[in-house]
Batch of 3 targets.
Target 1
Amino acid sequence: MVQTLMDLIRIPAIAPENGGEGELKKAEKLDETLKTLGLDKIERYDAADKRVPSGKRPNIVAYFNGKSNEKLWIVTHLDIVPPGEKSLWTLTKPFEPTIKNGRIYGRGSEDNMQSMIASIFAVKALKDTGTEPKRTVALAFVADEEQGSKYGIQHLIKQGLFKPKDLIIVPDSGNEDGSFIEIAEKSALWFRLRTIGKQAHASRPSTGLNAHRVGMQFALELDKLLHEKYSDRDEYFDPPETTIEPTKKDANVDAINIVPGEDVIYFDCRILPRYNVENIVNDVNRLAGNSKTRQEPA
């Protein structure tokens, strides 16, 4: 188990949104591992994506037959988040897995390779002990979990694989003794704010329009509006409130003495199910429309 996990960590599987080549190389290595287990069936459901060199985002489904055709799905994902600033990896390197004090360190070791390995070897244990489960166990290894799931679980849903009586486990979080089980999830919303101004020299700001300032002001105003309007709490969730966070920011200008003419800020929102996501999108668009009248140099 340790060796298989470390072999997978060595293979980056980063989405094209983050400058990666996708999950194909990791999927090919995983496919080799699955074929050694003697499972009943292994299938591939690739989603087309021209942004990656292979032109496809791989999804693998492996089956271990049980007494019933009704399935117990265990869904894990192939892709990982980028390693970030590599100079901050001071004790280990992201894609050179290292064992220290009984733990494996490396990008993707926790999210989501450890769950993937656990699901594979759980099925291996059933097979090795001659145990026939009540349901057919279906292991789904999906792409694109970190960037929206369009090429992963959404692609599998479109294939009609999941049935109303199936059970689904997504071991993407938990605790050491296994007592943490989450049976509900929030809605996710990502959006980008793009502000267009007029570039100018910073010594003559009145000749331009600072898109960075306008973008920051709008982002703060929007942040305040959404937090106030969508402030309900529900202790069923952890955290118990809708989270609304400005996160990523694109670079605007290269020089410090230039007033930027364009600025881009991103938001990550995890929304309680009582709220309609479309209403939040409409609030963003409405505030953006009202803000157009303020496009004057500061």
Target 2
Amino acid sequence: MILRIRSIVALLLVGSCAATSGLAQDTKKTKEWKKLFDGKTLAGWTNGSGKAPGKGWSVVDGAIHCGNKGGDIFTEADYYNFELKFEWKVAKGSNSGLKYRHADYSGKMVGCEYQVLDDDNHSNGKNPKQTAGSLYDVLPPDAKAKQLKKVGEWNTSRIVAKDAKVEHWLNGKKVLVIDMESAEWAKALAKSKFRDAPTFGQKDGRIMLQDHGDPVWFRRIEIMEL
């Protein structure tokens, strides 16, 4: 009889532990991909003032397209630690970019830019720090790893930003990695257009698609907060 009671108590304890474990597992926050573009509309994107995007922006064949001057567009939410993946293509001679951690630095609203460019037919292509995949005007992509698609073809890009460390990927290859707390970063920043913003790249901010007045397309834009 005593052994039977002990067995029942043991089973109850095991069940209680399992339930507790399941509860902890259910309430634990999981990392999930979130679509920033639904493939059909510009829902979730605004101009710099939080209003609807300019008329230069539209959705064409499942992609966000900027054909005429419509101003830059932004996500509604801010992000700091994240992994972002997106696809893009440009017309001949086009210049654009995707900015992140876009915030107020020394009184100016700026952000890190993943450069989107036709390297061969735009003047920026002559400056390695302003070519496709670069962290615009601060660091160039690794020329040996970089494999840029032809104009009119889709490129696949990825940005990983975790605290002070940032990576740029292009078509499956890591083309840039930097620690924003390193001497290398401080030196590169001091030589860039953002030299007057010592905390550049180290604040949370919105994701921005840049309008340079040139035809550009973006699609499959997804983010996962880290």
Target 3
Amino acid sequence: MSFKELRVPALEVRQSPGKTLYSFAVDGKLIHDFAAVSRIRREDDNHIVGYQRPEVLLHIAEIRNYIESESPMIPNAVVVAFDPRVRFEPLESNDDTSPVSYSNPGTLVIPVDETWGPDEKPGFIVDGQQRIAAIRDSNLAAFPVCVTAFITSNLKEQTEQFILVNSTKPLPKGLIYELLPNTEAALSTQLQRRRFPAMLLNLLNTRRESPFFGLIQTPTNPRDMTDRNHAKGVIKDNSILKMLENSLSDGVLHDLRYLGDGPDIEGMISVVSNFWGAVREVFPEAWAKDPGKSRLMHGAGMVSMGFVMDAICARYRKLRAPDKQQFIDDLLPLQSICFWTGGKWVFGSGKEFEWNEIQNVPRHIEILTNHLLYQYKTLVWSRDRRQTTFIDPTQSSMF
């Protein structure tokens, strides 16, 4: 006989009048035995039934990689809606001795039949379908998870709970990036990629000798332009992250990261600090200003000048990294062609932009970057061909 009952220790929680939750733990590989995913679809009369989106294969693969790592933990509970076939059997106890009035321990009894199709199972997964799919596909023998459940025969209530669970405001990206350096566990591909540059950003923002000290806007260092001499949170953290990521991908920071003895973090901080310290001296009128008043502090300025940093370092390749004075010497010829706070940028092919027309969009960043690299090659590299071999930055595939 295929029919059986799964009995799990559970806690009944009476949350509000007529609303009761059940909290229990179960092997995640068993959840699909009693709960299905209510896929959103339209019936022949164009009426919407179900509420879940399709499985996201990449997201599932990332979760699977994580739970197959050394010490995974998934603390957030899966949410399941049960129909009335599921019942709760409370433990016999004296209510007078119970420490609280709103909860009661007992056993949740869930009917299971391997012949049932998805629409015949007593449960529907309201939240956590990607996690359960990852556990289902994993090579683990078992992986227990916490489940929060409620019993209802009303599809409307299931749908309402799905919307409420999935419409909560996610964590701000800035907060996630600020927390990343303090983590070690396997994360999603995007977060893994940003953990190392986030660590560099934190060092640049908190070291007093750094030109970026206190200037990078993060949740713990919000924007404050009231003190002209000590502006805070001027530069968006994402602008710095993009600048660092580009160099880590194919620039001087890449070379310093993949050394024989491991990443030279102090070397990275030194070269970035030397370059941007030189930028601060060469363009003092544009430094530490609101991005609306200085395109150097803007995302477009940060990213494009990051490529200039890599180009200068490529010219001094034999030195491992230039010092601050060498950066200043190579940046000074660019003073006359940069319009960070006023004037008009004159690009090739007759393109002209007012200084504040430069926006933080890929096309504008590409135009500005190529212009700065071309001018650097023309004004500096051609001036002294006796320097080490220089990689023509205008021929790079940076975009």
